[in-house]
Amino acid sequence: MNRKEHVLNAALLAIGLGYVLEPAGDVATFETIAAMFVPLVLGALFPDVDAHYGKHRKALHNLTVLGIFLAYPLYFGNLQWVWLGVLTHFVLDVVGSKRGIALFYPLSSTEYGLPVGVAVVSKYAGLVTVIITALEVAIVAALLFYVVPALPPGVEDAIVRATETTNLI
Predict the structure, then answer these.
(1) I want to staple 22 with a disulfide (CB 3.0 to 4.6 A). Which of 29, 94, 110, 140 is the partner?
(2) How confident is the model at residue 155 (pLDDT cuts 50, 70, 90)?
(3) Is residue 64 part of a domain?
(4) Range 22-49 burial, b when 16+ CB lie within 10 A, else e
């Protein structure tokens, strides 16, 4: 996918998750959307920096980069939600495009993708992006409403404490 689709994905994801996390549609909902919007867009754009040097869809499209962005808010207490932008960039490139990404680079240059994607320049790229984003929001909602409440006693409280400490939710 191109930058336009990655930004579209991040913007729609911020709106969708804003309503999942704060469903009332009041000021808290819009504060949540605003808090997520810029970090998600930055994270969604970051992996494509490798298009301007080195090997595109390899150098910054791998699990090591995702791990670094996952660790940032836990260790430094900032860059919340950027990791989610990076993750959804990867999802869009794996599921939405034909080429895929090298998840295990530099250990392996093999690119992983699904055969259901469209060409980056396809007129359907925007539609595919919207469909994938809707699925991402649905998955997060299902996890929050069905999986987390079903966890053993104490585990849900530990997750809430961890996310409050790092401002992830």
Answers:
(1) 29
(2) low
(3) yes
(4) beeeeeebeebbebbbebbbebbbbbbe
